[in-house]
Amino acid sequence: MPEAEVAMGKYIYAIIPSPEEPREFASPSMSEDGQPAGTVHTVSFQDLAAVVSDYPQMDFQQFERTRANMMTHTKVLEEVMQELTILPVRFGTVGPSAEAIQEQVLSRRYDEFLDLVAEMEGKVELCLKVIWPEQVIFTEIVKESSPAMRRLRDKLKGRSAEETHFERIRLGEMIEAAMDKKRDEDAEKLLAPLRPLIPKEQVNYKDRLQLNRLLLDRMVINAALLVDQDRQEEFDEAVREVTTEHKDRMLFKYLGPVPPYNFVLIIIYWDKEEDEEE
Q: C-alpha angle with apex 25: 22 to 27, nearest 5 degrees?
């Protein structure tokens, strides 16, 4: 028996403001098994549109979260954001059809998306990650250790790990507390000159400065910042000055503009899934 033909849906990358005429974009589209899946294009409703490409219908849980797919998703967003305000849609979202996107997404959430587009217009997301080099932070911790920490460290010399198990745990806790204190102090030194460049109003229920989960024990900050596009050069210069001031103690990674995942991320539930938990 011949295999049943797989119904095609629409992979959704983002929501954008859009003229009525459909558009196509040059970025490669999401594909299944490396096979081309058509051009990246728009599905419009009034003055909003979804950026989509053809893709086999499937549930979110079934979508293959490969690095290649993530890179494709990101490249499409990066192309579109060069000229349009984007509201990123959760990676791996596939709609059943263009009509379903118009009716269940763009029409149903029209006012919400218009408000978000207005809030995000003229803004860019920048990312700043800072870590201590291992030798630097532990040298400083030892140099600045409290008398209690030094006494406990000296008590461990020449004694077995089994004999000093709980004392070693206590010393580890003291070192961790010292690192937390130093991290708070250094993070404030880094962020203090940047905060005046970040307006205080709320955007999509989050501050314009988003402090994300630290990925390493030696990480000082993992920050996303939403900055007015016309002040990006001013912000870049402020980051350069901070980097120069602290380059002997810290390593900096500064990226952007990037898609504003940290400030708006659209999650879509189709009618058949509305009662399910995310």
A: 155
Contact in structure between 218 and 137 (CB atoms under 8 Å): yes
CA separation, residue 191 to residues 187, 199, 243 (Å): 6, 14, 11
Which mean pLDDT values do the consecutive 10-residue runs of the chain (278 residues) have?
63 87 74 63 92 78 74 90 93 90 94 92 93 86 76 74 77 82 92 83 63 91 91 93 93 92 90 46
- Residue 210 pairs in a beta bridge with 224
Residue 40 CA neighbour count, 13 Å, CB half: 22
Output phi, psi for 59, to 5 deg.
Answer: -75, 155
User: Measured between alpha carbons, how far is 79 from 52 in angstroms, rounded to an integer?
Assistant: 13
Written as one letter, the residue type at 145 is S
For the CA atoms of 41, 46, 48, 51, the dihedral, rounded to the nearest 10 degrees, stands at -10
Judging by DSSP bridges, how do beta strands 48-56 and 123-131 pair with one another?
Answer: unpaired
Which residue intervals of the chain are DSSP H helices? 67-80, 98-100, 110-120, 134-143, 147-156, 165-191, 232-246
Give CA–CA dist 166/154, Å, rounded. 15
Structure tokens at 3: 């295999």
Helices (H), 192-273: 232-246
Which one, of 72, 78, 1, lies nearest residue 35 by Cα? Answer: 72
Question: What is the model's pTM?
Answer: 0.78
